[in-house]
Write a structure and sequence with these properties.
The chain has 56 residues and is mostly beta strands. It has no helices and 4 strands.
Amino acid sequence: MSNSHVETDEDGNLEYLEYYIECNNTVVRLFPDPDEESGWRVEEEVVDEDGPWSKP
């Protein structure tokens, strides 16, 4: 399961899309980038390296 979030600037323009992927505690951010072949630049970040199983 994942949760999504849209981040915009003051003028309402898209800055990035963010997805939280629960199964591996990763946040994936998609930034619009016309220089990329797909049109998006992808950044990943592990939110909690211990994983959800370490939490009570």
